[in-house]
Amino acid sequence: MKDFRLVMLGGVIIAFAGIALMLDALFSPKTTLQSEISYPALMSISLPDIADKPQALGQWQGKLLAINFWATWCAPCREEIPVFSLMQEKYAAKGLQIVGIAADKPDKVVQFLKTENFRYPALIDLTSAMDLSKRLGNRLGLLPHTIIFNAEGKIVLNKLGQIQESELENIILRNLAK
Amino acid sequence: MNPWFRLPLLLLGLFLLGTTAAKDVELLEPESAFRFSARLASPQEIEVQYRIAEGYYMYREKFRFEINPPATLSGNVKFPHGKIKNDPLFGKVEIYRRKVTIRIPVSTVSADDKIEIYVTSQGCADAGVCYPKMKSSALLGMSSQATQNDIAKPLSSLFNH
């Protein structure tokens, strides 16, 4: 009888593991994105900020750099913005830099930023932002898209879809310069 | 077999099902996620249809229509009732899943007339990603629909931000 209980327990654990994997797969898109742009090439790119002033991505070279592509019409993008703001406040002093790049109309972004507690630089370019996201591996042009580079310029995350606070914080903590 | 040992086997089956599903999930191309078609349902009505893949949805308020020549539009576009989605940021929004058929009244089309229709739409996946606006178009005519099984092929289906 004891053996039977062990078999049952094992079966239940395995089944739950399978169901958990299935649910995870259902609610998180595949993230095997292949960037075709090198880190130095990326660092040479400039995009306009909300004041239409060009901002070079290179100014954040050497930091743990999280670039988040988003748009005001994209609900999951808007939902994750408070998480990015929180992480920026929490870890900026330790070398984290979050940059939001909006693939959207500037007037809509400016209007949105008036109501949102956006704690990191916002760059905007309706067309070139999406082109850049696609070159970084987002072939279908979906949003949100987040790519994180460590201080050496290596990609440590390249993800489509809404990012959860725990997932983002784990990556940040693993990759912040010690 | 001892019936008590069937349950672990069933649970193992669930595990295998779960892992198989995990391998199969991949985001679809927009044209596959939201399959567009359009036809002249009658000389007075264009029928636009999207077949929406499982796990994907489209927003009612994001649909836009343009008809050429513009004079052929003869009334309000008729949308079916969708499902209400409580979005934490956008509030209550109406969405469509599986299939949506939209009817557009037009002035009577004669046998030789051609109508171009351009549809802008936007949808998302339950996986937490949204597709940018999609533009689809079709060239419709009373004579052509009979040869195309009542469904005019889309001229193009392209993205526009």
Strand elements of chain A, count = 7
Overall domain count of chain A: 2
* Number of helical segments with 4 or more residues of chain B: 3
Query: CATH superfamily membership of the largest domain in chain A, which one?
Result: Glutaredoxin
Detail the poorly predicted runs of chain B.
Answer: 17-24, 146-161
Keywords:
heterodimer; A: alpha/beta; 2 domains; five-stranded mixed β-sheet; 7 strands; 19% strand; B: 161 residues; alpha+beta; Immunoglobulin-like; four-stranded antiparallel β-sheet; 44% strand; disordered C terminus
Structural commentary:
With 178 residues, chain A is of the alpha/beta class. Chain A has six helices and seven strands. Chain A has a five-stranded mixed sheet, sandwiched between helices. Chain A has helices at 2-27, 39-43, 75-91, 106-115, 128-135, 165-175, and strands at residues 46-48, 54-56, 64-70, 96-102, 122-124, 145-149, 155-160. Chain A has two domains: 1-30; 31-175, Glutaredoxin (3-Layer(aba) Sandwich). Chain B has 161 residues and is α+β, with helices and mostly antiparallel strands. Chain B has a single domain (28-159), classed as Immunoglobulin-like (Sandwich). Chain B is 18% helix and 44% strand. Chain B is built from three helices and twelve strands. In chain B, the strands form three sheets. Chain B has a five-stranded antiparallel sheet with strand order 5-6-3-9-10, with no helix packed on it. Chain B has a four-stranded antiparallel sheet with strand order 4-8-11-12. In chain B, strands 1-2-7 form a three-stranded antiparallel sheet. In chain B, strand 5 (83-87) and strand 6 form a beta hairpin. The longest helix of chain B has 19 residues, at 6-24. The termini of chain B are far apart. In chain B, 25% of the residues are buried. Chain A binds chain B through residues 4, 7-8, 10-12, 14-15, 17-22, 24-30, 71, 73-79, 103-104, 126-127, 130, 140-144, 160-162, and chain B through 4-5, 7-12, 14-19, 21-27, 29-30, 55, 87-90, 122, 124-132, 159, 161.
